[in-house]
């Protein structure tokens, strides 16, 4: 969509903003807010909201998770009547603009109507603009998507460990504003256009989900029934296994592997152990089917003097302890010699199993592993290794395993190509969305003629 520019521009007087439309103004945000604590307020210190003050129900405590996820029903923290009266100055109301202070720094969301009565926590800043000067939706768009506000966030935010904002920084933001009526028109235009873009993104994400489901179905079918739809089957007498191909074998995992080994973490305080050439695999590295590079590397000295030991290439690597086990059971094959941390296991298959077939088999059993082998009541999600080793594995002769692997890899490559195309389209939609918002709210393009179109 080609949109016109304004008829004339002027220097904003601020280096990182540059030119603005002739009828617009550049103001400091502090002069666009309600006076005093009504205009801007940081959440209460953590000591005012200790865990012992929280109750199962009552007045809700809102945090960064509500802003980041744009979900004000999320969360279970509450305080009672007495605590609410004590902290009432931190109450949030519909129309307030909440800004995150740490992590996803400077993300802003307007509080929706009909929220549960409550307060903000110490990681949020509440902003109440003077609606005679600035439209709240317009201010939200500026803070979230304008490049010149992003620049100011980066320039002014501080923190010893991660970037952070405070109320003084936010009040010092330079803001470019058209008239209030034009702010309203711009906000309406962008609401409509971003909704259209978001719907296009949602449609692509649905298609990706469907193709991912197709991949899962192809894998599961191939590793449980083979490639011949007319194959004769027999009952397995195990509910989750169902019928299996008549000539396939059924054995527990521990009887079809040569070994299963773990790892450890060399002392982080010993510089002789780290920054070597041996990849050291931890759950954060398990993002692809094959592992040859990692974020961290150890040295030969670490191998000789710590609990981490080398794992030969073409082993099956699995995660047995990590928060990611809430959602998935990561499996990979290492193509080079690696070492593992203590949250990993390496499985070396016996001669009866092709390592790629076992890889796809475990991928296909992911939901079963998470259901049957998950350690109940653990503080961190983990897989019980004895239960994993007791899992029943069905498999054909090696020649058929090879054919199954070839089929799966061919089909997954085909589907991954389609998925990658949709992901690229989503990326382009998001880039266009960000660029459109930034150019409109900074006056680079004129949308007045598009409102109501």
Describe this protein's structure.
This protein has 453 residues and is an alpha+beta fold. It is built from 11 helices and 23 strands. The protein has helices at residues 64-68, 81-86, 136-145, 147-156, 167-171, 180-225, 300-305, 355-364, 366-372, 385-389, 398-441; strands at residues 9-11, 19-21, 25-28, 40-42, 59-62, 78-79, 97-100, 108-110, 118-120, 124-127, 174-177, 233-235, 243-245, 249-252, 257-261, 274-281, 290-291, 296-298, 316-319, 331-334, 339-340, 344-349, 392-395. Strands 15-22-19-20-17 form a 5-stranded mixed β-sheet, with helices on one face. The chain has a 4-stranded antiparallel β-sheet with strand order 4-10-7-8. Helix 6 (180-225) crosses helix 8 and helix 6 (180-225) packs antiparallel against helix 11 (398-441).
Helix content: 25-40%
Shape: elongated
What is the SS-derived class? alpha+beta
Question: Which sheet architecture does the biggest sheet show?
Answer: 5 strands, mixed
Low-confidence stretches: none
* Number of helices, counting only DSSP H or I runs of 4 residues or more: 11
Distance, first to last CA: 13 Å
Q: Could you tell me the strand content as a percent range? A: 15-25%
Mean pLDDT across all amino acids: 91
Give me the count of strands.
23
Rg value: 28 Å
What's the SSE blueprint?
Blueprint: E1 9-11, E2 19-21, E3 25-28, E4 40-42, E5 59-62, H1 64-68, E6 78-79, H2 81-86, E7 97-100, E8 108-110, E9 118-120, E10 124-127, H3 136-145, H4 147-156, H5 167-171, E11 174-177, H6 180-225, E12 233-235, E13 243-245, E14 249-252, E15 257-261, E16 274-281, E17 290-291, E18 296-298, H7 300-305, E19 316-319, E20 331-334, E21 339-340, E22 344-349, H8 355-364, H9 366-372, H10 385-389, E23 392-395, H11 398-441
């Amino acid at each position: 969509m080609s949109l016109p520019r304004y008829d004339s521009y002027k220097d904003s007087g601020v280096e990182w903003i540059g030119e603005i439309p002739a009828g617009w103004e550049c103001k400091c945000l502090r002069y666009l807010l309600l006076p005093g604590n009504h205009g801007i307020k940081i959440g209460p210190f953590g000591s005012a909201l200790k865990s012992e003050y929280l109750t199962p129900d009552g007045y809700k405590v809102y945090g960064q998770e509500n802003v980041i996820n744009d979900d004000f029903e999320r969360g279970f923290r509450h305080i009672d009547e007495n605590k609410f009266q004590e902290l009432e100055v931190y109450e949030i109301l519909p129309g307030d603009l909440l800004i995150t202070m740490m992590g996803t720094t400077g993300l802003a969301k307007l509080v929706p109507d009909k929220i549960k009565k409550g307060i903000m926590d110490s990681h949020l800043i509440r902003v109440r603009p003077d609606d005679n000067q600035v439209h709240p939706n317009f201010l939200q768009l500026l803070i979230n998507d304008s490049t010149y506000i992003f620049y100011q966030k980066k320039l002014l935010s501080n923190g010893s460990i991660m970037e952070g904002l405070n109320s003084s920084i936010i009040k010092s933001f330079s803001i470019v504003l058209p008239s209030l009526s034009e702010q309203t028109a711009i906000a309406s235009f962008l609401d409509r256009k971003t909704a259209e873009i978001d719907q296009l993104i949602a449609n692509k994400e649905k298609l990706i989900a469907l193709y991912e489901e197709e991949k899962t179905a192809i894998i599961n079918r191939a590793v449980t029934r083979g490639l011949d739809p007319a194959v004769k089957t027999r009952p397995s007498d195990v509910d989750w296994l169902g019928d299996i191909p008549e000539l396939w074998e059924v054995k527990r995992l521990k009887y079809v592997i040569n070994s299963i080994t773990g790892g450890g973490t060399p002392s982080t305080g010993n510089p002789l152990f780290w920054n070597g050439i041996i990849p050291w695999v931890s759950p954060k590295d398990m993002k692809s089917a094959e592992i040859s590079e990692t974020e961290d590397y150890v040295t030969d000295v670490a191998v000789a003097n710590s609990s981490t030991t080398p794992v030969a290439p073409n082993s099956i690597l699995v995660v047995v302890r990590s928060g990611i086990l809430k959602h998935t059971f990561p499996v990979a094959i290492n193509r080079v010699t690696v070492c593992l941390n203590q949250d990993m296991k390496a499985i070396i298959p016996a001669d009866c199993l092709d390592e790629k077939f076992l890889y796809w088999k475990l991928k296909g059993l992911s939901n079963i592993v998470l259901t049957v082998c998950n350690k109940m009541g653990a503080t961190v999600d983990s897989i019980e290794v004895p239960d994993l080793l007791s899992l029943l594995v069905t498999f054909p002769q090696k020649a058929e395993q090879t054919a199954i692997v070839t089929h799966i890899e061919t089909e997954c490559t085909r589907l991954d190509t389609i998925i990658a195309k949709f992901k690229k389209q989503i990326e382009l939609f998001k880039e266009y969305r960000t660029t459109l918002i930034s150019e409109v709210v900074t006056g680079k393009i004129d949308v007045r003629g598009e409102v109501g179109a």
